[in-house]
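Q: Hi! First time doing this. I have a protein sequence and I read that you can turn it into a structure. Is that right? Here it is:
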Amino acid sequence: VIARIEVTVTDEQIRQMEQTLELSEKNLAQIKQGVMIQRPVVHSGGGGASSAEIENAKNKLDQMNRLYEMGAVSGIQRDEAAAQYQAVLSRGGGSSSVTYESSYQPPNEEAVRRAEIQVNQARMALEQAKTSSSATEITAPVDGVVYLNGIETGSEIKAGDVVAFVGNDNDIWVEAYLNPNESDYAVLGQLAYFFVDRKKYEGTIVEVISPEVDGESQDSNTANSEAGYTSPYPSGKIVVKIAIPREAKDGIHFGNNVDLRLSK
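A: Yes, that's right. Below is the predicted 3D structure, encoded as structure tokens:
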């Protein structure tokens, strides 16, 4: 065990998320069913409002019904248009009568898409919360030594965060970071000298990683951030890796600082 975590998601929060997901799924199912719309049909027996007034009120009601299905107006606004239509029909004391005919309104594609997004978001939030609530200890995936902590005690973490760097002392190297104008010192196969506890060792440069240019660095950082990965190397630096001789490995461990000497 390399870390112990305190769960911040409570059982009550999980129950609320389950209810949110259930309501979102019911809302999606209801939207996919479409709706039945009742449209008034006027049977005029003479007198009352003019046919032009009735037609205008009916057109407004039809428009409000369409906007309501799109989610652009509220049910109250639609009902007001229906009431105005009824008022026009009854104005003037004519002998008009009204009947209603039902028609099926298919689901709106945009409304379905928005409801599906809400369901997916609710499901992902619930799954992440359940994962967080079940994890209380973090164990090392391999045998080795914790040589660098990825988080501070008391900090908040989420899935994908690096907690610690674990390594094996049998496979280590010296790593140095140079400025671009110091590239003459970074030559593959060149000898390098370093000191640990005032003891001198000799190694060989086995790998040189060039710094990324600004455009590539920005694109790479964006892609890595989306993938949940952060580069361990300083931005804009030349990375030089130096192999450690066998006789030096007993005195060098992960995380040690060394005094490195490079020459052109």
